[in-house]
Amino acid sequence: MRWVASAAALAAASTSTVPPESTQQALGYPSLFLLVLIGALVPVVPTGALVSSAAVVAFHQTAPFSLALVFVTASTAAFLGDAALYWLGRRGMRSRNGSRWLEAIRSRAPEERLAQARGKLSAHGIAVLVLSRLVPAGRIPVMLACLMADWPLRRFARGNLPACLAWAATYQVIGILGGSLFKEPWEGVVVAVVLTLVIGAAPGVWRRVRAAG
Questions:
Q1: How many CB atoms lie under 10 A from the CB of residue 9?
Q2: Alpha helices in 19-136 (DSSP H)
Q3: What is the gyration radius of the CA atoms in the chain, in angstroms?
Q4: How far, in Å, CA of 53 to CA of 70, rounded?
Q5: How far apart are CA 169 and CA 163, in angstroms?
Q6: What pTM does this model have?
Q7: CA distances to 9, 108, 147, 148 from 37, in Å
Q8: What is the pLDDT of residues 117-135, one digit of tens each?
Q9: Spatial contact of 48 and 201, defined as CB atoms under 8 Å apart
């Protein structure tokens, strides 16, 4: 868990000196939007930790609607990023030679997880898509299952909208809880980052434990 400690230390160092609220708002919301958008396209950015951290900072601000703006910014960026990635994946499915985006999606969807996602998608439809964003590492296998089922972009977007709203709300609640426990924002950021990273890593650790057993 050394990487969790490093992330927490980085968060503490970056937030120990808090700039004025006007500066936070001018830089924070565009940065949050861009990073979540990139994280949706390239699933290596810990977007959940970003949303939780932004919620901690917003919780300690005096400006009205700060938390609402974090929610709208994060959910919109996640939705647009997912839609763009799905559109690129559909182009790859129709192309004779595929695409690097489609290959990137496939590389992050192990066969076992993909088979489970296809079965659940066939049985439960859009409900599985809604839940997929709340399960760590669940988004990409379900997205690939939707691609293989030849869902049009409109149908995917209809199911993905509530998924992104639920995802943003969940990680924002984690940030609010972290922010409410401490007087200083950076302390809440550290707790939120560690918690979200641990939640994200837990399924992979569990699979390795099961495989070793």
A1: 12
A2: 21-41, 47-59, 66-94, 100-107, 111-124, 126-132
A3: 18
A4: 10
A5: 10
A6: 0.77
A7: 25, 18, 20, 24
A8: 999 998 888 889 888 888 8
A9: no
